[in-house]
Amino acid sequence: MQKVSLIASGRHHLEHAQRASSGRSAETIFGGHEHRLRQTLIALRAGQSLSEHENPGEATVQVLSGRVLLRSGTTSWNGSPGDLLTVPPGLHTVDATEDSVILLTTVVAQASPPGSPEA
């Protein structure tokens, strides 16, 4: 078992994001390339974004601190601390309207094995 303080980690990464030229800092809390489930803590300085990218499967954004705007096409959703936003399929962006820390959870679709009917 592993225990991680998202609050302490978020505070650390937000401090790093405030000093970084990119205005962001991130750490994979759970998962990785060998897992389908992946949880990534992301800190964004106010005014910074995760530029438009594709949803890798199923994903949620949990706002731990600050405020963010999740945009997909012409639709957008505001996120405040405690909010859980479901990331829509397709292209989307996340904008930090305040210094923010989010927990991005993704489940990458499993590839069909070679020779299966879905392949």
Automatic annotation (TrEMBL):
Q: Write down the InterPro entries for this protein, in alphabetical order.
A: RmlC-like_jellyroll, RmlC_Cupin_sf
The source's domain of life comes to Bacteria
Q: Where is this region: Disordered?
A: 1-26
Protein's name in the database? LuxR family transcriptional regulator
Q: Name the source organism.
A: Pseudolysinimonas kribbensis
Q: What is the lineage of its organism?
A: Bacteria, Bacillati, Actinomycetota, Actinomycetes, Micrococcales
